[in-house]
């Protein structure tokens, strides 16, 4: 035999290969099985984690409609139990001021009608008006007579809106059903709401 063939036989020793390759083959097979099981376990864990993560947005979607439905129910109950909270009930309807020129004076003809509608003390409203206009005035025959003729309807409409915002309307529920009282201890004026029962202090009108 040639040297090349002898070398081939020595390398390909089937007896030795059979003994040596059984255990590695089994080990390899076992390793492959272990790896497969491990991979399968990781896949299951990944699926579980993924399913957990997917539950969160589903819960949010389910929660949001319930939240808004609950708000609507509460709002409906409040409106049923408090008719003044219905749309339009928080507004106060005031007539347009009727103004007439009287020489160098201005007469607010329906002054007392508007004061009674706002349910406020005429002297308090008069003091506010003359302070805002920077003039003097007196109440006579249910009219407010101002010692100036330079004012028009727009001036009085603006003053009425400002007075209502400051001394009539509740700042929380916007109801006009309020009382204006004076604290005997602090001498501050307070607005007490008959609707939501809140209260707040208001600025004192400085005399002109």
Structure notes:
- The chain is of the alpha+beta class and 208 residues long.
- It folds into 2 domains: 17-81; 99-202, Defensin A-like (2-Layer Sandwich).
- Helix content is 54%, strand content 14%.
- It contains 5 helices and 7 strands; from the N terminus they run ααββααββαβββ.
- The strands form 2 sheets. Strands 1-2-4-3 form a 4-stranded antiparallel sheet, with helices on one face. Strands 5-6-7 form a 3-stranded antiparallel sheet, with no helix packed on it.
- Strand 5 (178-182) and strand 6 form a beta hairpin.
- The longest helix is centred in the N-terminal third of the chain and has 68 residues, at 14-81.
- The chain is elongated, with a radius of gyration of 45 Å.
- It starts with a helix and ends in a 6-residue tail after the last strand.
- The relative contact order is 0.08.
Can you give keywords for this protein?
208 residues, 3-stranded antiparallel β-sheet, Defensin A-like, alpha+beta, 14% strand, elongated
Number of DSSP E strands: 7
Structural class: alpha+beta
| Total count of domains | 2
* Rg over CA atoms: 45 Å
Integer average pLDDT: 75
The helicity comes to 40-55%
CATH topology of the largest domain: Defensin A-like
Write down the oligomeric state: single chain
**CATH architectural name of the largest domain:** 2-Layer Sandwich
Low-confidence blocks of residues: 1-20
Instruction: Give a short account of the largest sheet.
Output: 4 strands, antiparallel
Walk across the major sheet and give the strand order. Answer: 1-2-4-3
- Overall shape: it is elongated
CATH level 1 class label of the largest domain: Alpha Beta
> If helices are DSSP runs of H or I spanning 4 or more residues, what is the number of helices?
5
In angstroms, what separates the terminal alpha carbons?
A: 136 Å
**Helix and strand string, N-terminal first?**
HHEEHHEEHEEE
Q: Hey, roughly how much beta strand do the residues contain? A: 5-15%
């Amino acid at each position: 035999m040639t040297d090349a063939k002898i070398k081939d036989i020595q390398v390909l020793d089937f007896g030795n290969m059979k003994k040596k390759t059984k255990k590695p083959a089994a080990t390899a097979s076992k390793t492959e099985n272990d790896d497969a099981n491990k991979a399968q376990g990781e896949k299951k864990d990944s699926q579980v984690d993924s399913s957990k993560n997917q539950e969160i947005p589903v819960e949010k979607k389910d929660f949001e409609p319930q939240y808004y439905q609950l708000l609507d129910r509460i709002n409906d109950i409040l409106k049923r139990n408090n008719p003044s909270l219905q749309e339009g009930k928080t507004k106060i309807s005031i007539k347009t001021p009727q103004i007439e020129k009287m020489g160098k004076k201005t007469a607010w003809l329906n002054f007392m009608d508007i004061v009674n509608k706002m349910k406020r003390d005429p002297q308090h409203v008069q003091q506010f008006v003359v302070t805002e206009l920077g003039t003097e005035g007196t109440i006579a025959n249910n009219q407010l007579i101002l010692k100036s003729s330079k004012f028009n309807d727009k001036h009085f409409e603006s003053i009425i809106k400002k007075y209502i915002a400051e001394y009539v309307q509740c700042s929380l529920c916007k109801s006009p059903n309020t009382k204006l009282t004076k604290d005997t201890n602090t001498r501050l004026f307070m607005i007490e709401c008959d609707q939501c029962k809140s209260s707040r202090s208001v600025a004192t009108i400085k005399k002109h």
